[in-house]
Amino acid sequence: MKILRKSTWANVAVSLSLGVFLSACASKESVKLSIYTEPEGSHVVYMVTQAEAEKASPWIYLGVTPYKGATLFDDDDFDSDATIRIKVMRNGYLDQTKEWSGERFLEEAEDKGMIFWTPRLVKSE
Fold first, then answer.
1. Residue 55: alpha-carbon gap to chain centroid
2. Residues 69-105, buried b or exposed e (16+ Cβ, 10 A)?
3. CA–CA distance, 45 with 60 (Å, rounded to integer)
4. pTM for this predicted structure
5. Phi/psi class of residue 110: alpha, beta or left (left: φ > 0; alpha: ψ in -120 to 50)?
6. How much is the pLDDT for 5?
7. Which of 1, 50, 81, 107 has the fewest CB atoms below 10 angstroms from its CB?
8. What is the pLDDT of residue 56?
9. Mean pLDDT per 10-residue section of the chain, whose length is 125 residues
């Protein structure tokens, strides 16, 4: 009988913890990203800036192309005054950056099911 009670309390504790965790994540949106470059092997970073922010946000590293993954964004990243930038970089090539308003980024992700970008890198001299 004691084992059943401990198990029941453990289930309640896990359920409450999971509920708190899920409610904390409720303000996040997962967006699939698919980024390919010519040539492959470029580093991918992204940045979200808010118009009212006093400091620029840091670039966040995603990985190397070809890159396919999902990234969590805050709901306020999709406001009209937010800007989302993705940059690809490779040694010996010029950096390429693509920029969206927060609203346009979300619309494109919902319309296409992902953000898809294929920049062609230009050799630096």
1. 20
2. eeeebeeebbbeebbbbbbbbbeebeebeeebebeeb
3. 5
4. 0.75
5. alpha
6. 46
7. 1
8. 74
9. 47 45 64 95 95 83 96 90 95 96 94 95 92
What pLDDT is recorded for position 55? 76
Write out the chain in H/E/C secondary structure: CHHHHHHHHHHHHHHHHHHHHHHHCCCEEEEEEEECCECCCCEEEEEEEECCCCCCCCCEEEEECCEEEEEEEEHHHHCCCEEEEEEEECCCECCEEEEEEHHHHHHHHHHHCCEEECCECCECC
* Inter-CA distances, 72 with 3, 13, 92, 94, Å: 40, 27, 31, 28
Q: Is 97 left (phi over 0), alpha (psi -120 to 50) or beta?
A: beta
Say if residues 118 and 38 touch (Cβ distance below 8 Å).
yes
